[in-house]
Design a protein that fits this description.
about 160 residues, alpha/beta, Rossmann fold, seven-stranded mixed beta sheet
């Protein structure tokens, strides 16, 4: 549990609509969609936990806001994301974490989101700012263009 969560509260936190409005793109697939939460993601198809999004087929341009749990979980989702090679992933910006050191260099670009995102609870209310910031990993040219033009924060690029 993160420092900004209280004991007994849900660990379900959803990406607010303004993030998607800033991208100005549609996704073919949301690979880690909430079951009953707000579906602001402009996607044509959603995989929820019931669909086993990590192991279901992925296609097209994907959005991924995976579970923020144990680093083993993040590694599994990010491995699948970069193997797919076409989309945007939202992750905690924990630059010194081993999983971030492993996968950050694989991103074609990274957007360091500022200010911190106030994620939404399942009931639609906005939560407090998390203790850590958020980064967006871009994989593929469409993703790079979307985060570059988003105005959501500073963008850095992978060296060729």
């Amino acid at each position: 549990m993160a420092a900004y969560e209280k004991a007994g509260e849900s660990d379900e936190w959803y990406t607010p609509r303004y993030i998607f409005d800033a991208f100005g793109v549609s996704f073919d697939l949301d690979v880690a969609a909430p079951i009953d939460g707000p579906r602001y993601v402009p996607a044509f198809t959603w995989h929820s936990v019931d669909d086993d999004g990590l192991n279901s087929p992925w296609f097209g341009f994907v959005w991924m806001n995976p579970p923020f749990g144990h680093q083993r979980t993040k590694r599994a989702w990010l491995s699948r994301f970069f193997d797919h090679g076409n989309g945007i992933a939202l992750v905690p910006d924990r630059t010194s974490a081993p999983w971030f050191q492993e996968f950050g260099p694989q991103a074609d670009a990274i957007c360091w989101v500022a200010p911190k995102i106030k994620f939404e609870r399942p009931d639609g209310t906005r939560g407090e700012s998390p203790g850590t910031g958020t980064a967006l990993f871009a994989s593929g040219q469409k993703a790079v263009a979307a985060i570059e033009g988003s105005g959501l924060g500073m963008v850095t690029w992978r060296r060729p």
